[in-house]
Amino acid sequence: MSLAAGYPMIAIPGPSPLPERVLRAAHRVSPDIYGTDLAEMNVRVMGQLKRLAGTEAHLAPYIGNGHSAWEASAANMFHRGDHALVITSGHFGRSWAEQVSQMGVIVETLDCGSLPPDPGVLAERLAVDHDHVIKAVMVCQTDTASACMADIPALRDAMGDHPALLVVDAIASLGCAPLMMDDWGVDVLISASQKGLMCPPGAAFVWFSDKAAMRGRTDLTTPYWDWHLRANASPDALWRYWGGTPPVQLIFALDEALRMILDEEGLIATWARHAALARAVWAAGDAWGVGDTGIRLSVADPGARAASVTAMKLPGAEALRAWTAEQCGVTLGVGLGAEDPANALRVGHMGHCNAAMILGVLGAMQAGMVALDIPHGPGALDAAARVIAEPA
Ligand SMILES: *Cc1c(COP(=O)(O)O)cnc(C)c1O
């Protein structure tokens, strides 16, 4: 017998659960794309996206996923043959480095394995770059594969007065964990619609500082990816913002989702909710790991764990994922980038998630461990419940 009928739970690190309100907002026929209503909504969404990122900088939107924002930003920051330094803490940082290097940028990586970026190592590397060859330091705030979290202000401090741009991929963290682009001195910020922003995939965003804008156009800048054209579009020129037909239904979705985050819940409360839900997942993971079970959270230091996704080693993870999907309607994330992916998984807790959803996901996982005879320590659901009961 399966108990999976009912509301499906998607606990993967993106795309994240879609609020009904966001779906309803998007569910409409396209209005006149040359009319003033949509243009006004678009301008409002751009303003909200700047609020979300804590910035008054420039913003270029793209129809595309996170990978498109990687390419868009690189096409504006670099000449072919420029040097970039990518600090990697997992699969996503490494893929980003690879993509940018295929564009003709000379990429050096500071590989931290699955550990969070080390500001000391960055400072040492930049200290010997006497000629300021490195044009950009690039880092994922959350590497969604290893589920670790970078300390962006510490990395900015480590850069001292080196003139490289600080480029942050916040695809898996914006709207989930604190990020203040201007206060933190981030020059280029990258995100996408389908994770913390609670929208369908299909829109990507690049915010960039005056300092980044001063690079002008490079020999990698093609008209479609040119961020100046989009960021400087006149308010009624939707085709300019989006490089063609705007993603109409996504603009409605974004308008609703950003209202929910910024004007209703409030960004600080949204961050606090993510932090509490994350701690509930960690508490369960730690309890399951007691004894010789082999279950272990991938990031040992709680201060270096992501607020939006948790990765763990879990013997039998592949079978457990299949069981929770078939028996409980709960989809867990694959062990992307893990040493042994069949025995690793990730739990997404980003965007439109509440305590009941997370307790439900953890309960389904434990039921699966019982059903499949996967050894696990006791008290995980109690431990998670205690975090929910006393979130601060
Ligand atoms: C999801 C993700 C990406 C890739 O985004 P796509 O939309 O799948 O192209 C890149 N970086 C990070 C940190 C991510 O979490």
TrEMBL record:
The modification N6-(pyridoxal phosphate)lysine is found at K195. InterPro entries: Aminotrans_V_dom, Aminotrans_V_PyrdxlP_BS, PyrdxlP-dep_Trfase, PyrdxlP-dep_Trfase_major, PyrdxlP-dep_Trfase_small, SP_NH2Trfase/AEP_transaminase. One of its GO terms (biological process) is glycine biosynthetic process, by transamination of glyoxylate. Its cofactor is pyridoxal 5'-phosphate. Pfam families: Aminotran_5. Substrate binds at R346. Residues 73-281 form the Aminotransferase class V domain. Signal peptide: none annotated. Keywords: Aminotransferase, Pyridoxal phosphate, Transferase. GO terms for molecular function: alanine-glyoxylate transaminase activity; L-serine-pyruvate transaminase activity. Belongs to the class-V pyridoxal-phosphate-dependent aminotransferase family. This is Alanine--glyoxylate aminotransferase family protein.
